[in-house]
Predict the structure.
Amino acid sequence: MTDPSRDFDLAILGGGATGLMAAIRAAETGKTVALIEKNRRPGVKILISGGTRCNLTNARGLRNLSVISGPIDPAYDPREALGARSIQQAFGENGKFLAPALKAFSVESTVEFFEGEGVATYVEGNGKVFPVSNRASDVLDALLGRLEQTSTQVFTRCPVSGIEPVEGGFEVHLPDGPIHARRVVVAVGGQSYPGSGTTGDGFGWARRFGHTIVEPRPALVPLRVDADWVPGLKGLTIPDLVASIRGATGPALLERREAMLFAHFGLTGPAILDVSRAIARHDGPDRLDLALDFLPDVRAEVLDQLLQTEARTGRRNVVSFLPDAIPRRLAEAILVASSIPISRTGPELSRDERKRLVGSLKMLRLPVSGTLGFAKAEVTSGGVSLSEVDPNTLESRLQPGLHFAGEVLDLDGLIGGYNFQAAWSLGWLVGGLAT
């Protein structure tokens, strides 16, 4: 006979963003819920997200900015707001899978949820939505506070060793013995930031039920590049450039205009993290390059004419008459990368040197030697194949009663709050429908 204290309508494996939202929704709709987390407390990854500020969502997914109670950066252009379509686009071809979840729980729903729990929000110029406090802990506290108002039974320090289908549902094996649940939601995340507990457990469980796993790879991850001069610029931020990933021929595989940061290991920052998704999914034999356009608003022919004009105005060093958007440390490094002596003056600058300099400013190509891997990746690219999961219920098409939600799925979006929005929406959807 089943122990009533270990018998549930729904067992949710994983207490991250998706699992917490699923538990809240399921419990508030009257289900008996077990939330199972391997760490000593839920929400560890939430606390370290967005540089501990927690980028909740993106205002481009809003139709109504009035739900934001805090300031809206004047640099944010509300004409960029596309509603759910904006969120889906951030996930590429797989974004259409999110349509039912975003219909169930939109960006407006997300902002209203957290504002209702006392977390005032504001919008940065790039559309990122943060808590006014800039504290990820406030976001987690809001979720845990809402969860505590429900009858959810939270199991912590409970790594799941297996899921077994039995009559009437599933047995979920925990260190102190199994629990029984009529349905199970796997929301344990992928493999990014394994120190937070996301070590790919869900992929193994999915395989045992016959699911296809699209090879997990690190995404939204810093890049290593083959350029000896890059570490010398560590700490330097370029607030606005275009980064792209390119093969030997053809168009860019992925392109992003954002900020970039030089680091001792290579390059990071929003532009780099976003284009790293192309590295994650590249299977060809060709090595890829990172191409950088440091002056995205200046056409190459205009820049060439500017350099010609400046070169005629006295015997100034070339490094001194590059546009103000190029910091001196970077300007010197670009000259070296272009095989131009730092001491070169304007009148001495040859036509070939000038052309090389323009090329470096507009399309500096750096061979990508790798990434920092899952240890520094914000998300996992790959996961449970979407073709084997019903987007309307997140239920497995292979095993009735088994659901997959969150990063365990083959879903990864751009940086900017998109992945969190997917987590909130998928959690809300599966919590409301898994009966």
Observations:
- Residues 319 and 331 are 6 Å apart (CA to CA).
